[in-house]
Amino acid sequence: MKEKSINFKLHRIIQLSYSFSTLTKIKSVLKDEELKFSISTSNPIFPKDKRIGIGLKIEYLYMNEKKEESKIVQFENLTLFDIENYNEIVIIDNGHTAIPNPVLHTLFSIAYSTARGILAEKLAGTYLGKHYLPLIDPSYFYPLGPNSKSMEKEE
Q1: CA angle 91–97–99, rounded 5-degree value
Q2: Domain range for 70
Q3: 153: in domain
Q4: Is 42 in contact with 59 (CB distance < 8 Å)?
Q5: What is the tens place of the pLDDT at every residue in 28-52?
Q6: In a domain, 141, yes or no
Q7: Which of 29, 65, 97, 135 stands 20 to 30 A from 81 (CA)?
Q8: Domains contained in the chain, number
């Protein structure tokens, strides 16, 4: 199978939601083991505009000594990419949409790095100011390699 290259540019970053809780039970300095991150993704497509989106929902969770979780930050955004060769990259067949994982891997890397920077700026000067989102391997969400499959979804 011939590899396809992707020609794209960043179209827009849309903040969908942001909340920050200053729970009184949380001390001003958190230990790393008291903080958990939850990250989920979505991949909306916009065929008319030849666009692929990477949606991110990121939560910072505080774990108290009883291992109970409290959500202290929630951030959702959508990063939109214009795909010049959209019809070569996004395959729609019998109501199923397939986007090659290497494409999603690349777009996720950009969207996640951008979200890390946005959250670092938003949390600067707070008790979470030094707790940056971790660096993660995009392969966790979009595996690469000979056994990886394209992301597929029903239309």
Answers
A1: 65
A2: 8-22+33-133
A3: no
A4: no
A5: 667 888 899 999 999 999 999 999 9
A6: no
A7: 135
A8: 1
